[in-house]
Amino acid sequence: METLLSHSFDYLSSPSPQKIRKGLRQVEGLLAQLCLSKTPAANKRHSLQPASSPTGKKLSELPEDPAFQEFFKLQQSFQWNIAMRLVACLERLLGKESNGTNDMLIIQTLDLIQGVLLLHPPSRALFSQEIYMNLFLDLLDPANCPAIQSSTIMALVTSLLDHPQNARTFEAIDGLLVATSLFKSRSTSREVKLKLVEFLYFYLMPETPATKTSASASAPNTAILGGRGKELIAAFDRRRETVNGPDGVKNTDNNTRTTEEKQNLLGKHLSNVQDLVEDLKEGGGVFGVGAM
Asked: Are 291 and 280 in contact (CB under 8 A)?
């Protein structure tokens, strides 16, 4: 796995779009191998049925998978952390001229960042630093295409999951202003506006301290990813405790905000925040999560 990562990192640091694409594909292939089950080869030759596609591994099995255990341990180190390399690659892509090829590479990088942050929750701590959180705000610029904006919103949400300090960083660098300005802009596509509404529902949910690892503690902040996302975070939090012990890699900063506190902050930029809060209280908004 180290050899594959080493080659991938070399490609990701290249100025060549072709090599960057190859590096992204190698990372994607690694993550796919961790998450997908191989199609049984038994009786494959004698079967008249077409070969079935690989299926996802059960979440309960994944933390016990030897390959995933090796992956998780490698991600704990500076040398092999994929999220750091993807963020560095994203920075370089942002410095290039905007065109179709570069836009696709940015989208692919954002999608992989989202996947890595789900597979290795401790990597989300990167985005407690303003320099990295600012990348998301730069990508929400109205000049960027809707596909980039949509992928950015999803990666942003994943970076905030169960990490209140990251939300504080997002607020401190005027993230709410950027998000609401994009939402109110007439040039913003309908698809992006829908994702921004989902993001605002997610943001308004009450936060739980980052030291809690139970499924119930993770549920409110994983609602935007649906039930599978909730299971995923709970499974990987359990794996984190197994690898690092009960007190292993975790954020001890419990600087959380209530829905009411965040409503006041968001209300400075948006007029109908109370309607969003009422939706959350009555029916869970767009996520179907009724409990506050």
From this structure: no
- Give Cβ neighbours of residue 206 (< 8 Å, ≥ 6 apart): 220, 256, 257, 258, 259, 292
For position 2, what pLDDT does the model report? 84
Selected residue with higher pLDDT from 97 and 141:
141
β-strands 55-56, 36-37: how paired? antiparallel
Residue 259 — φ and ψ, nearest 5°? -60, -40
Q: What is the pLDDT of residue 242?
A: 43
* C-alpha to C-alpha distances, 291 to 109, 219, 277, nearest whole angstrom: 34, 10, 12
Within a 10 A sphere around the Cβ of 165, how many other Cβ atoms? 20
- CA distances from residue 29 to 25, 82, 107, 112, 266 in whole angstroms, order as listed: 6, 13, 16, 11, 39
Look at the block and give the residue holding tokens 């990508």: 139
Distance of CA 200 to the CA centre of its chain: 16
Of 193, 153, 176, 140, give the one whose Cα is nearest residue 257: 176
What domains can you pick out in the chain, each with its CATH number?
Answer: 2-36+57-287 (1.25.10)
CA dihedral 35, 32, 86, 79 (to 10 degrees): 70
Q: Is the dihedral of CA 203, 209, 210, 216 positive or negative?
A: negative
Distance CA 77, CA 161 (A): 21
Q: How many CB atoms neighbour CB 236 within 10 A?
A: 22
The β-bridge partners of 53 are none
Answer whether residue 240 shows pLDDT above 50.
no
Q: Which helix (H) or strand (E) holds 37?
A: strand 36-37
Q: Tell me, what DSSP letter sits at residue 220?
A: G
